[in-house]
Each structure stands twice: as structure tokens, then as C-alpha cells.
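User: Can you write out an input/output pair for a complex, sequences first and structure second?

Assistant: Here is one pair. Inputs:
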Amino acid sequence: MSLPLDPDDSVVVLAHEQFPDRAKTAVGVLRYAEYDVTAVLDRDRAGESVGDHVPDVPDAPIVESMDAALGVADPDALVIGIAPIGGGFDESWRPDVRAAIEAGCDVIAGLHYFLEDDAEFAALAADHGVDLIDVRRPPDDLTVSEGRAREADADVVLTVGTDCSTGKMTTTLELVAAARARGVDAGFVPTGQTGIMIAGWGVPIDRTISDFAAGAVERMILDAAPDHDVLFVEGQGSILHPAYSGVTCSLLHGAMPDALVVTHSAGREAIHGYESFPIPPVETHADLYTDLAEPVAPTTVAAGALDTRTFEDDAAAREAVDAYADALDAPATDPVRFDADELLDALL
Amino acid sequence: MSLPLDPDDSVVVLAHEQFPDRAKTAVGVLRYAEYDVTAVLDRDRAGESVGDHVPDVPDAPIVESMDAALGVADPDALVIGIAPIGGGFDESWRPDVRAAIEAGCDVIAGLHYFLEDDAEFAALAADHGVDLIDVRRPPDDLTVSEGRAREADADVVLTVGTDCSTGKMTTTLELVAAARARGVDAGFVPTGQTGIMIAGWGVPIDRTISDFAAGAVERMILDAAPDHDVLFVEGQGSILHPAYSGVTCSLLHGAMPDALVVTHSAGREAIHGYESFPIPPVETHADLYTDLAEPVAPTTVAAGALDTRTFEDDAAAREAVDAYADALDAPATDPVRFDADELLDALL
């Protein structure tokens, strides 16, 4: 899927009542997307600004509604930057979506509820000639993997992890940014809804038919490789996640990475939401990922990324990172707290 | 999904031009389904009989068309017992499906092409009050696994393998039959279209959304466990299959089996259809399956099943089985050529 967003386009991001801490997509878009954000919608923080909450991103006003956002600038699209548990559409957002469509904006969402299937929005979008884009709907022409990702004429790096939400997307994007800063032609291969919104293309691997998950990754690798020297592939889940391991396994065998970056969230001891499942030591993960890859397409654990946000001071974070690197027997850092250069040295 | 087939119902099985060697579903239904088969449709073999080709199953005539089959008996359903490459609907079957519907038969298919979505068949089925059942369409209320299959009050045995088509379904069904012959209350958990047609219920795991694959297996385990003492779960693919490993991984973590039966096809050295991928030794598979299960729900390799059809004489087959058992460090046999009792001894 490809979104109608160019680097010089601009968007409004909806994040009502959840900005910034529970608005992972909104913050990801602010931090990493090339297109501009002209305003964030959060009725609880109207009058504040993005810069009050998220450092190191271009500032933008926080306003109460799409109508207010249209008074600030003339955006190309409205991006739904939050997802309620269950991925439904919150009816309190309806006036904002309606106003966006009426103003000629495309609407981009990553919900389980598809905007395209909403009768009112579909009719209104047709009337105004705008697109409703549900990034969680996979393309309908996917097929099985042919086992060809190793043929890609680019190095492939996959982020894997010990659980969901360990910083796989963030690490991948930090690596892309650091590589580009060094003049390396690095491509980002997005596999989840936030990554897709940021990059403007990609396939939501977790929503594909399970038989086609590896094939979807393979196709993205083969499509993107000719344009880049190295591809950083956003990983999903964990090979030991009770619910999502199949997605992770499809990514590992579909992407056939030359190298892995293993991510972990410092201090997390059990699978999030599955607290009766302890997270084994990171070296167990490293062995499993490489053992599982070996007969299909051998790979190595080249680096580790540790999310150290639970540590207040940098010294403690650095200590945790060092212990993590020792356990993994590979260079490691927190690419957000520190920077991704150390990882890049190990990868390039 | 649950099919409208009781043990005292009868069906016609369509297998045009492919019976018996390329009609895996037709032969599976003849061999293992509890309902009766009144005729097989194969226009190339009309006038012959099932008994000419498949030993040890109730005989039935092979006829050229559904009209001819209706002259033999009054069946409850037509089962599409073959699948062309790609899973499409072969237009040469249309008169047979039409005749079945007009005669009041349900039509059961496992194609990628859904009969329900065929305008002519849908209208005709509505007129005649019959059901069109596409077993490859997963239920639309699936959700993520909760990691609860270990709570099932039944022992769970999962067949795994070194590739697709290594006899996972057959081994599972032979184990169920052998267990029942011993008076054990054994249940069969079908996960693919042929298994579903045979058992009359089940979810096609390879067609579910990848995030929900483990959840679909878990639900089947928890639904079936209260009615049985032991559940034999039909496995899919292989943990080292370049395209389908994600499905296999979801089954392993979703089913949380107490024991595994590892299947292999004697003499096969590379992944079928992926000939550049050699199949590693079976002990590599055994280690990977148990290592991958261990932190989520520990399991053991309790037995092996070797498909020895490539050997003409029993002595050579027995020798291959013994070598396989040695490599696996577990009892093994060919449950079709010999019998499943040896495996059952290791499992119960």
C-alpha cells in the first residue's frame, strides 16, 4: 500500500485525550515522518503545543478540533494518531473526520474499523474527491513467499525483540536516520500501521492471511532493494510471544535478514499482557532467532537496542546497556537516549 | 466452522481427472470421514470404482457427472474433493455443482474461490434452500490468543513435520482411530481444509489473519477439550519452511501441546517446491520445536511418523523407520504402512 503523502505535504494528527503518552502513532509521525504536521487534535490539551511535550520535533499547535486546525493551515490529510483498545472508531471523532473530508483532506487511519466501510464517510469522500486510507487493510493480491529475499541486492537488517513494544520500530527508524546522516542509502521497510503511516507505504504483516505473511515481507524486500544499499526492516512481536510468534517467524523467514538487532525493554520481566509468561534471558532469544534462521537463511545477532526509559539517570542506563551487550555478546545501546551510531558501526 | 454433515449422512465427492493420486481431499474423505460416499465424480474414470484404486475403504462407483451420481443414490451434499493449483474454481465443474444444488444438496468446498461469492450458485442455493460452505473461509470472530491452551483439561498431541505433505493429517487421523480402537476418548482438531471436511468442523489456520492464528488454535483446543481425554491436533507446514513457518509457529504456541509427533517423508531432501532449501536432519527439527516451545509451554518429542511410500518392500521401509527412530531418539513407525499402535504406546 502506498499513501498519498509526499515529503512536502502536511497533515493534522488526531490524538484526542491521549497526547502524548498514549498516542504512539501521533508521536511516531511527529518524530519520524518526512511530511509536516500542522496541528495535533487533543481536546484535553487545546492551547498547548507539541513542543511542550515532545522534545526535538518541529513544534505545532494542539487544538480542539479539525475546524480549529483548518484555521491554522491548509493540510493535505488527517491522520488518526491513536487507537483505542480493540481498534474501534470513537464516535467522538466523527465531526473531525467529517470536517477533514469536507475540507478536501484525505483521511488516513490504522484502525481495525475501516473508514472505507463507514457509509457516511464513504459517501462524503466520494462527494469531495478525497481518499479514505485504512493502512491496516492488507493488499488483496498477496501470495506465498518464494523464498527469494536473499536475492535482494541490498543488505537486510531486521529488528527483533523479546516482546511487543520493546522499541523495534523506533530502533529501526533511528538506524535509518543515522545511516542516512552518514550518507548511506538506507531504506525503511515498514510492517505495522504506525511505520506505514510514517513511511507512506508498507504492508501490515499482522493483518495478512497467515500463509501470505512471509510472502508480503519478501515482496517488500524485493521491491525496495533496488533503490537502496541497506534495508532496515521493522520487526513485530517476539518469537516467544504466546499470541504473535507466528508473525515474528514469518518476518524472520520472509525477510531473510543478513543481521539482527535484538531489542528489549529494560526491567520488563514478563510478556506484556501475558504476565504468567516470563521473558527468558536475551541470550535465549538470540540463540532461538539465529537457530531458526540458520537452515533457511543464516543470520547473526549484530547488535542490541535496550529501551532504558525506566531509568532516570544516564549512568544507570549506561550500566544496563553494558550488561545487555555482555549478555548478547554484541554491541548495544539505547538508540533514543544515546544515539544509534554504535549500532550502525556494528551493522555497516 | 461446523459443517452440516452427520455420521449417517452421505455425500458425492468431485475429483474430475485427478482421482485418486492427485485427489488428496477425496481420498482423505473416503478413508477417514464418518459420513458415507455414494459416488466419486471423475469423468476420466467413469465406470470404474473406488475399490479399484483405494484399498480398505467402502467401495463406491466412479461416475461422470452429478446427474449420474443422483441416479445411484440420494446424497446430502456434494464435496469438492480436489483443488487446482491456485485454488480456483474449474468452470467444467459448474454443471455438477448446479445439479447438486437443484437436487437439494449442500455443496462443500475448500477452494480459494468461494462458492458463496459466485452469483449463480448463491442465487440457486437460496432458491433451493441449501448451503454453500467454503471451509477455507475462516470465521470472522477470531481474536488473539490469551495463552491459555495449557489450561485445557485434556492431553494435547500436535503433529509437526520437516515440510508440507509429510503426513501430518494422516498421522493425526491414524492416531485418533487407533486411540478410539483402544477405547480412549480421543478428539481430532482439524486445522486445514481436508481435515475440516473429514471432521465436519475446524478452522483453516493458514487462512486466518496472522495475528489471530494462535488464537484460533487455542479456541479449538479449549472448545474440544471438555469432550475428550486426549486431543490430536493436525499440524501444518514446518518451522523451517520458507513460506509457511509462521503458521507452524502459531500452531506450536497456540496449541501448547504436551507432546509432539514429528513427521517426515522418507527420501525427501529438500523443501517441496523450494528445492534450493535442503531439509536439515530430523534431530535439528526436534531441537527447534522443543526449544521454541520451552519458554512458552514445554513439550517433548514423543514419537515419529515416517511416510515410507517411496519404498516398495516392507523390510526396507522398516529399516528406514528404525533409522528415523534412532535419529529422533523416540519410537517411530509409518502409521499407514504398519500401524499407529507403536506411536500410541509412546503417547498415552
